[in-house]
Design brief:
- By secondary structure, this protein is of the alpha+beta class.
- Helices cover 38% and strands 23% of the residues.
- It is built from three helices and five strands.
- A five-stranded antiparallel beta sheet has the order 3-2-1-4-5.
- A hairpin with a 5-residue loop joins strand 1 and strand 2.
- Helix 2 packs antiparallel against helix 3.
- The longest helix is centred in the first third of the chain and has 44 residues.
- It is rod-shaped, with a radius of gyration of 33 Å.
- The protein starts with 9 loop residues before the first helix and ends in a 10-residue tail after the last strand.
Length: 197
């Protein structure tokens, strides 16, 4: 029996490999899964970033409402006692719930606008926690021009805000929190100075 040897053609091998690559390139199975695997982390981060942004805007809005309410109600008082100050602080903190109100700072200041209308003298100041109040007799720059020689109540509210996602710390220099703050000025409703008892 004569053994015949089959000689392989190198062109046939190359054509076979090319056919396999073409067949692989034409396959559409699993493409959706790969695309989803590539896009899903980006979409998840975008959704979570949106939720965190809305939460931060909500916190900022609550700080503005608290500062405005404190100054508005304070301008209606005839005089300020310790209980009045604490009541206004409690009101402001209640308005900022569900955020970390125990870490918030509230400063309530009685001001007399100077003749130039852009500066005011501190007549009295209280803060919670203590130690943040303004020194009596110091000058405060006003954000806009006011009628000279009127009495103003200024309320400053500061609330530390911590982002919900640790991944955002890399965009804020490693800090996951920042302070939201607002200051509001209201003229005394009576037109008279409101004394601090």
């Amino acid at each position: 029996m004569a053994e015949t040897m089959k000689l392989s053609n190198p062109n046939q091998k190359r054509d076979g490999i090319l056919r396999k690559f073409r067949r692989f390139g034409k396959q559409k199975k699993g493409v959706s899964a790969i695309e989803f695997a590539l896009i899903a982390p980006i979409l998840i981060i975008m959704v979570l970033a949106g939720v965190d942004a809305v939460y931060a805007l909500s916190a900022k809005r609550k700080v503005i409402i608290a500062a405005s309410s404190i100054a508005d109600l304070g301008a209606r008082e005839g005089e300020f006692s310790d209980q009045d100050i604490q009541g206004l602080v409690n009101l402001g903190r209640t308005l900022m719930v569900p955020f970390n109100v125990n870490a918030s700072d509230v400063i309530i200041t009685g001001l007399r606008v100077r003749p130039n209308g852009t500066e005011a003298e501190v007549l009295w100041s209280d803060s919670v926690p203590e130690g943040l109040e303004r020194a009596v007799g110091t000058t405060v720059q006003l954000p806009s021009e006011f009628t000279p020689e009127i009495f103003l109540i200024q309320s400053d509210v500061r609330l530390p805000y911590t982002t919900l996602l640790p991944v955002f710390r890399q965009f804020t220099d490693g800090e996951a929190s920042f302070t939201l703050q607002d200051a509001r000025y209201f003229r005394s409703r009576s037109g008279q100075d409101i004394p601090r008892l």
